[in-house]
Amino acid sequence: MNKAELVSAIAKRADVPAATVDSVILGLQEELVEAITRGDKVSLPGLLTVERSQRSARTGRNPQTGESIEIAAAHTAKVSAGSNLKKAAAAVPVK
């Protein structure tokens, strides 16, 4: 599902104009980015949690040359599925 399909589905389910849904999704995106920048954790119970995480510096290897390289420490975004998403995924049979 892409953004346009998501906007359309939410607009239909909530019985609101698609433009309104698009504005809300854009606002959510901006707030998530700002929260991660500040180091805040955003939690939507049952759905997901988004937080900033830190990855330590480490030594890696260039796969082409085999040469050791130093990989700098970095911040990254961590997204964890909530209980409702986990239940939905578990309900789908494995093929």
UniProtKB/TrEMBL annotation:
Keywords in alphabetical order: DNA condensation, DNA-binding
Entry's Gene Ontology cellular component terms: cytosol
GO molecular function: DNA binding; structural constituent of chromatin
Gene Ontology biological process terms in this record: chromosome condensation
InterPro entries hit by this protein: Hist_DNA-bd (IPR000119), IHF-like_DNA-bd_dom_sf (IPR010992)
SUPFAM superfamilies: IHF-like DNA-binding proteins (SSF47729)
Domain of life: Bacteria
Family that this chain belongs to: Belongs to the bacterial histone-like protein family.
Name of the molecule in the record: Integration host factor
Species lineage: Bacteria, Bacillati, Actinomycetota, Actinomycetes, Geodermatophilales
